[in-house]
Amino acid sequence: MIDAVALGAIRRGSESALGQIIDKYAAYVCVIIRNAVGGSLTHEDVEETASDVFFALWQNANKVERLKSWLGATARNKAINKLREIHTDLPIDDEIATDTNNDIEDDILVEYERRAVKEAILAMDERDREIFLRFYYDSQTVATIVTETGMTEAAVRKRLTRGRRKLRLILDKQEVLGI
């Protein structure tokens, strides 16, 4: 079944169409979830989060225009929310990814902001960038980073603080310049 046809059927309350979408996109949604949170969620948490994504599709089918991109954005956002639920302190300010509105202008803005963050991270000193990526994107704990890099805990925490500060300065500068 073509996505647009299935989405129309879901809007009309077809559970079998939802089942077809789940069959087609379950693996994709689970990969997005795992990539968003690294190894921080159990297999059961990933499956539960994927179920939440498809339940959200059922509830919001009338608002969905581009199914695959909506599923990807929703999966990432639900994964981050699940991580917040499990760990009371999610280490990265992820405001960029919390908007599930699918307006084209919003999608362009989100993509622009993602690129700006990526460029800012790539502009960091190599060692700071490595620690920053390990902590925020690979979801490694400070203890794991200390063990794998041989650095002290204080040095790792200092580099994370410095990385956040540099990232904020670069992004603020880009915003002021209108870049």
Supply database-style keywords.
single chain, 179 residues, mainly alpha, Rna Polymerase Sigma Factor, Chain: A, Arc Repressor Mutant, subunit A, 2 domains, 74% helix, elongated
Topology, element by element:
Blueprint: H1 3-11, H2 15-37, H3 43-60, H4 67-86, H5 104-122, H6 126-136, H7 142-149, H8 153-177
Structure explained in plain terms:
- This protein is mainly alpha-helical and 179 residues long.
- The chain folds into two domains: 1-92, Rna Polymerase Sigma Factor, Chain: A, CATH 1.10.1740.10; 103-179, Orthogonal Bundle (Arc Repressor Mutant, subunit A), CATH 1.10.10.
- It is 74% helix and 0% strand.
- It has helices at 3-11, 15-37, 43-60, 67-86, 104-122, 126-136, 142-149, 153-177.
- α3 crosses α4 and α5 crosses α8 (153-177).
- The N and C termini lie far apart (42 Å).
- Residues 88-102 have low confidence and may be disordered.
**Could you estimate the helical fraction of the residues in percent?**
over 70%
Strand tally is 0
Could you give a short account of the major beta sheet? none
In total, how many domains does the architecture comprise? 2
- By CATH, the architecture of the largest domain is named Orthogonal Bundle
Mean pLDDT: 79
Quote the CATH topology of the largest domain: Rna Polymerase Sigma Factor, Chain: A
Radius of gyration: 19 Å
Helix segment tally? 8
- Low-pLDDT regions: 88-102
Fourth-level CATH superfamily of the largest domain: RNA polymerase sigma factor, region 2, helix turn helix motif
Strand content: under 5%
CATH top level of the largest domain? Answer: Mainly Alpha
